[in-house]
């Protein structure tokens, strides 16, 4: 997995060649098409072709479509012209429009020093400086003594920092200094540093000095060394091409080079991503929490796969600690989704690390939109990581400005892929960055509080909720049995029934059976409630009442009560009896019947209680939920 | 790979690099005969061919190439050699 393979980008469309041809022929190619293609994995020839189409896009189209136009000047000591298409396409990938200027070959010093040069007439917003080792050190005798080598380093560093200062006097934008590619071979080997005059030694020492000096001068570093360390020098630099056309960067590596540079530019423009939105199942842990349960997850515990998920979580947590906001977007029941965070001993990420936790069955694009709103950040500041190609594609289609990396099959490579993509490139970190995660969580907590105290009604009204109900039927039977046997928390009696048991209840004359589905402005929440009442003369005894926890606090209990009372009356009952049988998990519904207006008539030693409601006295609750019967 | 297959792929690469989808080439075509086939694009063609066929064309070989036919011959030789070895 090499940086220059850019595996985080999705593969180009199958008809790329046709599309590129059509764009190249169009008088003014649509900006959004150009951006879309720039966000796919193009090789250098395809990149150059897209750049030609980009050149045809009118300035107005760019100005209308692009977030910003910028002038980028590239000054180098060797050939840099072949880097320009990839730089422009990498800008396009970020919805930036970049005009470029290249200084005359090897004339960078004059360009910077001459106030009337083409460089300054161009008014660059960004200045990229790329010097090669041959130019800086090529002619020196490796037999230099330590003191002479030191003096040489001082002089080269001084010349470069002087250029920064001269440029700074004439421009206010960003200056980027590329580290020097270590293309020189060692002369003595591992202990090369003992030969102070070796160019390999000088380059590595110069790069360290440039990094320090740049920090002092407010110059940003393009750390090519890091990419070369990952990919191997041969991937980025081809000596044949160096000798042939003085191209220090191989054309094959130009798309990745362009991306590395434009990350820095985007970061300077405040366009780096701010928030990482994470899927859960098979992304943060192996397996599906809803099916496999806590014990069935592959996470930690000495297995290679489990360790890989731990490593990915550790990387994610480190990102959070340096200021990236974390959110969860999972298709899961909320309680299931939260349980590993609360209970699994090998989870590195804790609920506290997550600024916005969304687990439901709505489509992910809608949820991601909500996350951006709740965190009050732009949708284009989000990165969405999901192992599932279906979810990735739906989000790419619905929300093209969200960054959605392709994820490798093997979770051992997740962290590498995310890091290579460079979505969160930052130039300097503040104390605020390091504390950001906490701030967002506090803001959210406050917002929740405000919402619950001041405008709950408005919120509930805006949800346009509909409780769609019907008696049990064959079609819904499986789901009913499943809920009866898996619901633990909002379950008054925790009675488990087989399919045959439920069929028997369905066929009992006078029995009350209700399955409830909740729909709201965000979609269908599925079956969220089950009620079973057994007739005992004029009384209906509520044998089972269970609900999904994720719809609590939305008046669903009250609306269901209205329905239960009305149906019981229709069936000829005058009184309802309710039971609460305590378990380890259902403490949350201890006062369920009290809250609904029942009177306690029996309290047993084991904590079980029996409740009674006189239906002739019952007055329905006011709710914002519309009740509809779905089978008529 | 047959010579015809290599020729067809090399032609497509050259057409892509030069952005001339309908480019007509034959074995005798020289860089000078084709609009836009300058030294800059020549490097791009060589690098794209190397990358596509997973071969390396060395410095002396690049210098000696005179026409498309010689490039195709060279590629074919290298591809089939690396396959048999």
How would you characterize the largest beta sheet of chain B? Answer: none
- Please tell me the total number of domains of chain A: 3
How confident overall, as mean pLDDT of chain A?
Answer: 89
Q: Compute the gyration radius of chain A: what is it?
A: 32 Å
H/E series of chain B: HHHH
Kindly, what is the distance between the CA atoms of the first and last residues of chain B, rounded to a whole number of angstroms? 15 Å
**What portion of residues of chain B is helical?**
55-70%
Given the helix and strand composition of chain B, which structural class is it?
A: mainly alpha
How many domains make up the 3D coordinates of chain B?
A: 1
Order the strands across the largest sheet of chain A as they lie in space: 15-16-14-13-12-11-10-17
Please, could you describe this protein's structure?
The complex is a heterodimer of chains A (632) and B (85). Chain A has 632 residues and is of the alpha/beta class. Chain A contains 26 helices and 17 strands. Chain A is elongated. Chain A starts with 15 loop residues before the first helix and ends with a strand. Chain B is mainly alpha-helical and 85 residues long. The mean pLDDT of chain B is 90. Chain B has a single domain, classed as Non-ribosomal Peptide Synthetase Peptidyl Carrier Protein, Chain A (Orthogonal Bundle). Chains A and B meet through helix 1, helix 3 and helix 13 of A and helix 1 and helix 2 of B.
Question: What's the SSE blueprint?
Answer:
The complex is a heterodimer of chains A (632) and B (85).
Chain A: H1 16-25, H2 31-38, H3 44-56, H4 59-65, E1 68-76, H5 84-93, E2 96-102, H6 108-113, H7 118-121, E3 126-130, H8 133-137, H9 146-168, E4 174-178, H10 199-217, E5 220-222, H11 224-231, H12 233-236, H13 239-245, H14 254-268, E6 275-278, H15 289-296, H16 304-321, E7 325-331, H17 334-343, E8 356-360, H18 364-375, E9 382-385, H19 389-398, H20 414-421, H21 431-454, H22 456-462, E10 466-470, H23 477-486, H24 499-506, E11 512-520, E12 523-536, E13 539-547, H25 556-570, E14 575-580, H26 592-595, E15 599-603, E16 609-614, E17 626-629
Parallel strand pairs in A: 1-2, 1-3, 3-4, 4-5, 6-7, 6-9, 7-8, 10-17, 13-14
Antiparallel strand pairs in A: 10-11, 11-12, 12-13, 14-16, 15-16
Chain B: H1 3-18, H2 39-53, H3 59-64, H4 68-84
Helix pairs in contact in B: 1-2, 1-4
């Amino acid at each position: 997995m090499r940086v220059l393979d850019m595996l985080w980008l999705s593969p180009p469309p199958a008809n790329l060649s046709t599309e590129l041809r059509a764009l190249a022929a169009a008088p003014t190619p649509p900006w959004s098409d150009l951006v879309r293609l720039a966000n796919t994995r193009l090789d250098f020839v395809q990149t150059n072709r897209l750049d030609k189409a980009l050149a045809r896009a009118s300035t107005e189209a760019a100005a209308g479509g692009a977030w910003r136009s910028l002038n980028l000047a590239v000054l180098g000591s060797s050939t840099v012209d072949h880097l320009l298409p990839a730089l422009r396409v990498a800008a396009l990938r970020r919805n930036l429009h970049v005009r470029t200027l290249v200084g005359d070959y090897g004339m960078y010093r004059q360009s910077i020093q001459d106030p009337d040069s083409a460089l300054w007439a161009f008014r660059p917003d960004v200045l990229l400086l790329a010097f090669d080792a041959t130019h800086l050190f090529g002619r020196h005798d490796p037999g230099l003594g330590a003191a002479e080598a030191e003096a040489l380093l001082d002089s080269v560093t001084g010349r470069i920092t002087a250029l920064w200062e001269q440029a700074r006097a004439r421009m206010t934008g960003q200056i980027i200094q590329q580290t020097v590619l270590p293309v020189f071979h060692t002369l003595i080997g591992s202990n090369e540093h003992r030969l102070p005059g070796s160019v390999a030694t000088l380059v590595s020492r110069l790069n360290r000095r440039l990094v320090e000096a740049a920090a002092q001068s407010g110059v940003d570093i393009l750390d090519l060394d890091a990419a070369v360390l990952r990919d191997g020098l041969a991937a980025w630099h081809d000596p044949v091409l160096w000798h042939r056309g003085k191209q220090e960067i191989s054309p094959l590596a130009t798309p990745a080079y362009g991306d590395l540079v434009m990350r820095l530019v985007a970061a300077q423009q405040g366009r780096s991503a701010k928030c990482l939105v994470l899927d859960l199942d098979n992304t943060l842990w192996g397996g599906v929490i809803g099916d496999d349960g806590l014990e069935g997850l592959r996470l930690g515990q000495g297995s290679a796969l489990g360790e890989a998920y731990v490593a990915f979580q550790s990387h994610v947590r480190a990102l959070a600690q340096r200021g990236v906001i974390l959110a969860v977007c999972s298709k899961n029941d909320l309680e299931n989704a939260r349980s590993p965070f609360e209970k699994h001993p090998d989870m590195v990420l804790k609920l506290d690390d997550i600024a916005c936790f969304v687990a439901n069955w709505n489509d992910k694009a809608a949820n991601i939109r909500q996350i951006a709103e709740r965190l009050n950040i732009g949708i284009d500041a989000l990165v969405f990581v999901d192992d599932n190609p279906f979810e990735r594609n739906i989000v790419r289609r619905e929300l093209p400005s969200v960054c959605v990396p392709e994820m490798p099959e093997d979770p051992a490579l997740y962290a590498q892929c995310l890091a290579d993509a460079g979505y969160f490139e930052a130039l300097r970190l503040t104390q605020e960055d390091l504390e950001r995660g906490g701030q967002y969580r506090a803001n959210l907590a406050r917002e929740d509080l405000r919402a619950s105290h001041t405008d709950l009604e408005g919120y509930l009204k805006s949800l346009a909720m509909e409780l769609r109900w019907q008696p049990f039927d064959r079609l819904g039977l499986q789901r009913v049995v499943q809920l009866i046997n898996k619901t633990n928390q909002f379950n008054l009696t925790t009675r488990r029934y087989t399919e045959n048991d439920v069929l028997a209840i369905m066929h009992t004359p006078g029995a009350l059976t209700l399955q409830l589905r909740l729909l709201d402005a965000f979609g269908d929440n599925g079956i969220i409630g089950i009620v079973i009442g057994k007739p005992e003369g004029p009384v209906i005894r509520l044998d089972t009442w269970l609900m999904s926890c994720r719809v609590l606090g939305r008046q669903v209990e009250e609306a269901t009560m209205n329905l239960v009372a009305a149906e019981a009356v229709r069936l000829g009952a005058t009184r309802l009896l309710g039971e609460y049988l305590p378990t380890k998990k259902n403490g949350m519904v201890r006062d369920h019947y009290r809250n609904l207006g029942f009177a306690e008539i029996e309290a047993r030693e084991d904590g079980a209680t029996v409740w009674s409601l006189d239906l002739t006295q019952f007055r329905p609750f006011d709710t914002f939920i519309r009740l509809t019967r779905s089978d008529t | 790979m047959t010579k015809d297959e290599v020729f067809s792929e090399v032609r497509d690469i050259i057409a892509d690099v030069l952005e001339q989808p309908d480019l007509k080439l034959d074995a005798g075509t020289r860089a000078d005969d084709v609009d836009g086939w300058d030294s800059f694009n020549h490097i791009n063609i060589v690098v794209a061919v190397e990358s596509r066929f997973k071969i390396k064309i060395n410095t002396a070989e690049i210098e000696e190439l005179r026409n498309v036919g010689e490039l195709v011959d060279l590629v074919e030789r290298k591809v089939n050699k690396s396959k048999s070895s």
